[in-house]
Amino acid sequence: MERITAIVLAGGSGKRMKSAVPKQYLTLAGKPVIYYALRAFDESAVTDIVLVAGAGDADYCREEIIRRYGIRKVRAVVEGGKERYDSVYRGLLAAEDADYVLIHDGARPLVTADVIARALAGAREYGACVAGMPVKDTVRLVGEDEFADATPDRRLLRQIQTPQAFCGPLIRDAYAKVLADIEQGRTEGRGITDDAMILEYAAGRRVKVTEGSYRNLKITTPEDLILAEAYLRAAENSD
C-alpha cells in the first residue's frame, strides 16, 4: 500500500503576533489554529500524519489537540529543532517509510482538500511541487538603501505556500545532504526558508508550482487571525 505522510510543523513562535502563546495554539473560531490544518489532512488522502511540535509541547499536542479533537491519523509527535530545516528533518526521520511526503506549516489553518490533492498529484507526476498563487501586487526589489532597483514581471511571480509535496526518498536524501553541508560549514542555513530550496540546492531539481488558494494564508500577524476567522465563517455559511 502506498504510504503518504503529511508532516505538519507546529513549532513557530508568537513574536510577530505580539503574543506569549505560540501562534499555532492561538484560538481561531473557538479552536487552536493547528487543529484546522490537522483536520484537513486527517480528512484527506494522506495515510498518516507526523506532527512536529515545539520543544516541550509534545504532550500538550497529544492530549489537548490530537485526543481532544479526535485526530485519527497522527502516528507520531516529535519535537522540532532550532531551525525550521532541523524540525522538518526530524519529521522526515519519523516518516522514513513514506512514498510521498507533504510538508505543511501548521500556521496555515485554511488549507483545503483541493489544495492537498493538487499537491499530491504534482508530487506523483513531477517528483516535487509546491502550492502557490499569482502575486496580486507589483513587487519591487530594493537595495540596502531602500531605493528601488528593479521591478520583476508580475506574471512570472508566485506567492509560495504549503503544502510542499515530494517523493519521499528524494526529499529525505536532499535534507540529509544539506544538513551535512551546514554541519561541515560548506553552506549556511540562514537563507533556507522552505523545502523546495533544499531540493534545489541538494539535487539541482526544478520544482513544479501547483495551484494553492488565496485563502490558504499563514497566521503571522493579528490581522491574519481576523481574516482567517472571516473566511471560516463564510465557509460555514455556504455549507
Describe this structure in words.
The structure is a single chain. This protein is of the alpha/beta class. Helix content is 36%, strand content 23%. The protein contains 7 helices and 11 strands. The protein has helices at 33-42, 58-67, 84-94, 113-126, 168-183, 195-203, 222-238, and strands at residues 4-10, 27-28, 31-32, 48-53, 74-79, 100-105, 128-134, 141-142, 148-150, 158-167, 208-211. A 7-stranded mixed sheet has the order 5-4-1-6-10-7-11, sandwiched between helices. A two-stranded antiparallel sheet has the order 2-3. A hairpin with a 5-residue loop joins strand 8 and strand 9. Helix 5 crosses helix 6 (195-203). The protein is globular.
The rounded Rg comes to 18 Å
Low-pLDDT stretches: none
- What is the CA-CA span between the terminal residues? 34 Å
Figure out the total of helices.
7
Instruction: Provide the β-strand percentage band.
Output: 15-25%
Q: Name the structural class.
A: alpha/beta
Tally of DSSP β-strands: 11
Major β-sheet strand ordering: 5-4-1-6-10-7-11
Helical percent range? 25-40%
Overall geometry comes to globular
Order of helices and strands: EEEHEHEHEHEEEEHHEH
Q: Report the major sheet.
A: 7 strands, mixed
What is the average of the pLDDT values? 94
Topology:
Blueprint: E1 4-10, E2 27-28, E3 31-32, H1 33-42, E4 48-53, H2 58-67, E5 74-79, H3 84-94, E6 100-105, H4 113-126, E7 128-134, E8 141-142, E9 148-150, E10 158-167, H5 168-183, H6 195-203, E11 208-211, H7 222-238
Parallel strand pairs: 1-4, 1-6, 4-5, 7-11
Antiparallel strand pairs: 2-3, 6-10, 7-10, 8-9
Helix pairs in contact: 3-5, 5-6
